[in-house]
Amino acid sequence: MAHALAKLAPENLALEIIEIGQLPLYNPDIDGEDAPEAFKGFRQRVRQTDGLLFLTPEYNRSVPGSLKNALDVGSRPYGQSVWAGKPGAVISISPGSLGAFGANHHLRQALVFLDVPAMAQPEAYIGGAAELFDDAGALVNEGTKEFMTKYMNAFEAWVHTNR
To answer: For a designed S-S bond to 63, which of 34, 46, 67, 95 qualifies (C-beta 3.0 to 4.6 A apart)?
Structure first.
């Protein structure tokens, strides 16, 4: 979905995918001046953004552990959160019919605490994900493509207004 959104984004909105799978589990005992390079690089990349577009699946009615870990890494050291004040938006995607509704709302709750003003409308709960893409990963469902184009235009306006 992230690659499909990059193709649907308005011309003045540049998207960069920040991978989170390589981040070690957050542990305050290894943070600080000698923090892992993965922490430092991740924090720097997030700091350089004007806005944050979170894409999440749902595991057990919540966000995956890797996403929660990334939120923790970015929120520390205390008082130096890379999230604070950055406008954000949430898209949840699932093979199921609920479109990862639980994960979407859990993430939004965490973003409130992290001081990320999240775009309220439109909301994006993308269900039936397996039927939306072709074998090459291209978004082929025209209704979803139209909705996501509108979503990306709204996100661009949200970032522009709130950065």
So the answer is: 67
